[in-house]
Structures
1.
Amino acid sequence: MLNLAIIAVNLIQYLNLIYMKKIYFLASFLFCASIVHAQLVINEVLYDPSNSGLDGDANGDGTYSQDDDSFVEIYNNSSSAFDMSGYQIWDDTTSGGTVQYTFPNNTSVPAQEVVVVFGGGTPTGPFGTSLVLNAVNGFNFNNSGEVIGIKDSSGAWVLFFDSDILSGNPNESYTRNPDITGVFEQHEDNTTLKFSPGAKIDGTSFNLSSGLTENNTFFSLKVYPNPAIDVITIEAAVKIEQFQIFSITGQLMIAESTQGNAINIEALTPGIYFLRVTAESKIATSRFVKQ
């Protein structure tokens, strides 16, 4: 009996040691993962846009769509650009999950800036100074009990958003308050807005280092395709006299007088830019993405 007791004690001690090693390994793994991906933060998620008229038209294209107006906003909380090429947005991660979107090559999120991925439609700003991407086929997010995950290019889970600990059908986004560091709350808890894709909870841009913001107050200005690879087209109801293209830091990249509406941007490196158009002594500014 004594030998059996000793064996039992030794077995318990051995199992405890194995258990503690597993806990230590898991903690170490999570710590290392948090160091690598600490600069990425899910800041705002809309998985249940309001279906009351255009209250849920988050992408601004004039049409309500549950799948197209849903979005995920991710913040780069560092002093350097972050390459999200090959990262993926997943849905229903608790039951295996499905890929909803894969970030294309050369997806670089500027320092202290956000990337917003809409499910589809034709995202029409303003979205601050953010990088805006389009999943095209729509996000198949659930109205409640939603668990969204982000995988890196190696297939490892790096970020999660779990609405189970929040309320069910919010009809608005969940956003951190304060931005980046706060806990999630419904957007209208402390504002009159249902969402603020590409901007802080108060509607201001995350990165204003250039002093440039979108402004179409004086005349309507559309730029397409957006994102673009080699050529962008300007659409305005007035005669365009001059255009300037600035980097996100405010550096003038291109300046020309023009009578046309097509601009060659092949020489620009991938990133976020501002197009400033002068017409009839008035100025309008729009943001676009060069891929």
2.
Amino acid sequence: MKRKRLRFRRIRKGFYLTLLFEKYGKWFIWELKRFFVPLALFIVIVSALVFISTKDFPWREWKLSQGFYRDVFCEKIRSGSIRQPFNAWSSLIFIPIGLWMARRAFLDKVPSPRLSPIRRHKRYGLLFGISLVITGVGSWFFHASLTYVGHFVDVIGMYFLGGFLFTYGLSRKLRQSATAFLAVYAAVVVPLVLFQWFNPEASRYAFGALILSALGIEIGLHKSLSNKLFVVALLTLGLGFFIWILDEKKLLCWPQSCLQGHAIWHILTAIATQLSYLYYLSEGPRVNWKIGYRAGKYTWMNRYWKR
């Protein structure tokens, strides 16, 4: 009798494990595919940058940026290939987030007019992700070299990112198509890039104007202050900007420490952009999962929309 009970318990346990695998196992495999490619690409990019950092580049032969002479950042300028290591390596946090966005743009494309544009068209997610990758690589290059070219590449990434936030909000407000969005995006970013080459000192003001304009559009679009993701992203960005000011004014400054205010600014800004992306995804009806049942066998999970 005890053996029969034990055998029944084992069968019941195996049945429940089968149900759990059918319910969560395939979902886990799908999520693993989503993160595997970005993780592999991130490892390749970091390995390439580590290899570059082992080489001795003569940065002094390049035209140096104004930040080198004015000592804008708190971190001590070191000799070698990486002049500001903590500010440089903290910039790489933008890269995995951008790669994840670009990968998700391919996997999560759902053709439904009820969803937000960033879910209906993969070009939005791709452009958002690529701008973050360029921001990370450009910021690393700038803090590693402190050269004029490095500053230019760094600001290009900032304009790509700020231009996307501004143009995406404007396209949703005006109900533009994806093609019109790309045209407006190019009309916003290209003049800023050309202006940056001739007037590099105005970059922070132009980038600040883009961010403030994007925030104003989001608040006026559908009262985004009621959305928790938007509020947390806004608070995170504000905290990062406050720490950046303290670092620049040397009020929060330890030159030889691993704790750098500008590095914290990089991390908080990357978190704010990730929250902004999740906020964009939260627009429209939620996409949920359910298990299909057919002929005594659990089938692949299907999507359905629920407000």
3.
Amino acid sequence: MGLGAPVYAVVGLMVAYTSFRIVKETKPLLMLPLEAKLETGIPEIDNVLKGGIPHPCSLLLLGPVGSGKTEIFLKLSSYRLQKNDAIIFVCTNNLPENYRLMMKKIGFDPQPFEERNSLIFVDAYSSKFGLESKEKYCTSIISYDVSATISKAIDKAKGINKIVIVHSLTDVLDECGTREGLMFLRSLVARTREAKATLLLSLNPQAFPPAVFALTQEAVDGAITLKAKEKAGVRWHL
């Protein structure tokens, strides 16, 4: 079955007293074999995407700092793990232990899933500050090292569907530079396609010139943009 339509999103999300619209990007998804749609557990996204994110595919989650990217990834991870999928969570902007704490705060205990290799954290954060990582899967932020470690984690992860989350691509581009960062992105897209896994990467488009931002979009199958609108009140609202 071919994936012939772009990802359409006209969703209003209100996160931390701010609402966000998910809007369709100008670049359509490539024609790729589509095996399924994966629900995210976030009705506002699933309804607009007509059942969830395409699988397998590669998508950018775009938005400025504070736009709710972390919360979306945490909710999606906990939901898909409970559906017996595998999550490889690549941490470039925070320690894995902090993401574990965030998961617990939303009522999800990651430990049982880590014990059976359904949830694998890849620590690409500690080395930036000369810290010794406590994680089984740890790497420097150098693009080759990150790619190799992610590849090992994909092979070891156990689940019906495999989802790789990179949070965030912004840090990789900042640390490695545009050329190496884009090579990392293209390599990871190819690796996840080979593994029939879905790849989700967060990116702050405001952090880069338009030309660099355009190149990141060209490397993936589609993108979802979170746009802030000032409005207070409800946490999640369509």
